[in-house]
Specification:
Elements: E1 6-7, E2 19-20, E3 29-32, E4 35-36, E5 54-60, E6 75-80, E7 88-96, H1 105-110, E8 116-130, E9 134-147, E10 153-157, H2 159-168, H3 172-178, E11 191-194, E12 197-205, E13 211-225, E14 228-243, E15 255-271, E16 277-288, E17 295-302
Parallel strand pairs: 3-6
Antiparallel strand pairs: 1-2, 3-4, 5-6, 7-8, 8-9, 9-13, 10-12, 11-12, 13-14, 14-15, 15-16, 16-17
Length: 303
């Protein structure tokens, strides 16, 4: 961060956005189109915003007005794009591929390069539905990343060892648990003593995948009605990645690391007179994470 009075985020520090004006990162605040975008626990933004769909970004570092409360640190403001009286569109694709990267010294010694593939592609378009009155804008972006799979090794019973464990099991519940574990191909790791019985074990090498897929889109609408400027915003995010036990990524123990959320915003700027303007914002946010229950946040902020 190059703004005055700011420092970058340090490792192991809770919060997002770095230190602003000497405050902790967890004291920062985040806004999208005039409404809060703060997590309900430790601070940080909840809704990703496609970079191409941003019209403005500002960082308020101190002495901001009362209508930008909530946070003692910095205030990160994002304003998304609107449609105009002419149609415009854009497309993009960012690609990082192992075939484009030079080998480092360790990779040269191994004779091959580890996988690191990343793609970010999307498109946007905006224009008038009714000129000078009703406009629409939308953007979509897809990201995926694939890293080299790891190959952890774990000690497990051989087929003979598993048969012995089944004979020692107290009931069918224990036997059903033993059925879930894969069998080592050979007795190359000695034995393990279980209740005085030697159980032959061996090393089993499995493959742990490492990748993610993410989808984001935003749809904006703007309507001019006499003294009212009405805006609607809808943002959506979906993230998926494999979830597994790092020491034993066997297929029967694999799951899905699923998270995402969406945010709906309605705003009305009412010009009451040449001297009085009322800004009204209301929003609904829904965030779903793999380690927490559903988080729903509905906020209304007339000013």
């Amino acid at each position: 961060m190059f703004a005055p009075g700011t420092t970058t985020q340090q490792g192991g520090v809770l919060g997002s956005g770095g230190s602003i004006g000497g405050t902790r990162p967890r004291f920062n605040g985040f806004n999208i189109d005039g409404v809060e975008d703060n997590k309900l626990d430790t601070n940080g933004p909840t809704q990703p915003v496609i970079q191409e769909s941003m019209a403005e970004f500002t960082l308020l570092t101190n002495q901001f007005s009362a209508d930008n409360g909530h946070s003692a640190g910095g205030l990160f403001n994002i304003v998304t794009k609107s449609g105009t009286n002419s149609w415009h569109g854009a497309g993009w694709w960012f690609d990082r591929n192992r075939n484009f990267d030079a080998l480092d010294n360790q990779q040269k010694a191994r004779g091959h390069q580890d996988r690191f593939d990343y793609n970010r592609a999307g498109a946007s378009a905006g224009g008038p539905i009714l000129k000078n009155r009703l406009f629409i804008y939308g953007a979509y972006e897809f990201q995926n990343e694939g890293l080299a799979a790891s190959s952890p090794s774990v000690k497990l019973p051989t087929a003979d060892g598993l048969n012995t464990l089944n004979s020692l099991a107290h009931d069918d519940a224990v036997r059903n648990i033993l059925k879930q574990f894969p069998v080592a191909p050979g007795n190359d790791a000695g034995t393990v003593n279980v209740n005085g019985t030697a159980i032959p074990v061996g090393n089993l090498t499995t493959v742990a995948p490492s990748y993610f897929n993410e989808n984001n889109y935003i749809v904006n609408g703007d309507l001019t009605l006499s003294r009212h400027q009405i805006s609607t915003r809808f943002l959506y995010d979906r993230f998926r990645a494999p979830d597994f036990n790092p020491s034993l990524p066997a297929p029967q123990f694999l799951g899905t690391f699923a998270s995402g959320g969406h945010k709906a915003i309605i705003s009305d700027t009412w010009t009451i007179s040449s001297r009085v303007i009322n800004n009204f914002h209301t929003s609904y946010s829904r965030s779903v994470g793999p380690r927490s229950s559903l988080l729903v946040d509905s906020r209304t902020s007339p000013t």
